[in-house]
Structures are given as structure tokens and as C-alpha cells.
Amino acid sequence: MNRQQRFFRIPFIRPADQYKDPQNKKKGWWYAHFDGPWIARQMELHPDKPPILLVAGKDDMEMCELNLEETGLTRKRGAEILPRQFEEIWERCGGIQYLQNAIESRQARPTYATAMLQNLLK
């Protein structure tokens, strides 16, 4: 469990909205928590839709499949955020309950996030 934990946030615009919305009002945010080289949790926040929460194991098919180095996030200026910035949004969007449900149904892959939540619930 002593792998490096890194957190990222980058803006995105859905390709379909790119030209319809020149003022970027439909800009969303993509958040990622990497546990070592692999993604552990991911969020997509869209201005006109409920948040999308994903956890390793349960949602692997919908998550970023590149390792941290391959994503280029570490070289993108301003993309890395503090852990508490990620956790605040994760909690506000119902991430604790989502991860807890995935753990209880044995769908979550063991990560730093699952270990921390299990310790918190003891």
C-alpha cells in the first residue's frame, strides 16, 4: 500500500458540443485518482448530467485503460490537484457510498482508496 497516490483534473468538451458551444458553457471536468501507475477512481462531471463515478474492478471497461505515464497527465501543466480537492468532489458526488457498495459486493479491486475506506468504517 505504499504506492504513490496522484490526483488529476482536466477540462473536457464532448466532441458533439465542440462547435455548438463556442463559449464553453458545456465544459465538463474529468477527475482521476491513480494508485501507483494505474487508475483507482475516476469521475466525470457534466454541467447537464449527474456525475459519473467509476472504481477499479467494478467499472474497468469504462475507465481510462492507460497507465499514468501513457496518459501524459504528469506533463500537463495544472492538471495535478491535491488529494483533498479530489476527495471533496468525490464525497459530494456520492463516491463514498458508491465505493462502499462496490466493496461490499466484492466488485472493487483492492486499492489505496478501498483500504482507506475500510479502515474508516472499522
UniProtKB/TrEMBL annotation:
It comes from the Eukaryota. It holds the Pfam family Myosin-VI_CBD. It comes from Myotis myotis. Residues 5-95 form the Myosin VI cargo binding domain. The lineage of its organism: Eukaryota, Metazoa, Chordata, Craniata, Vertebrata. This is Myosin VI.
